[in-house]
Write a structure and sequence with these properties.
85 residues, 1 helix, 4 strands, alpha+beta, Translation Initiation Factor IF3
Length: 85
Amino acid sequence: MIVTTSHNVEGKSITSYLGIVTGGQLFALSVGKKGAHKVWNSAVTDVIDLLKKEAAALNADAIISVRFNNDDARVMATGTAVKLG
């Protein structure tokens, strides 16, 4: 499954838009810069996995226009599930 922040997938055409997919993950704050970075990366990976599962249920080939936000101890993401030609 292709996941991108872009509005398209290079070399592919979008044949249909299947809907918006969302994901969110709570994470525990770590002490120190390295710990915070590691926790953030882990939370983003978990959120991407949630987006992929939701998109797979729609039979999507890709998720485009993915946007990440964080709020206190949460990472949230949205994107658009699409079918590619």
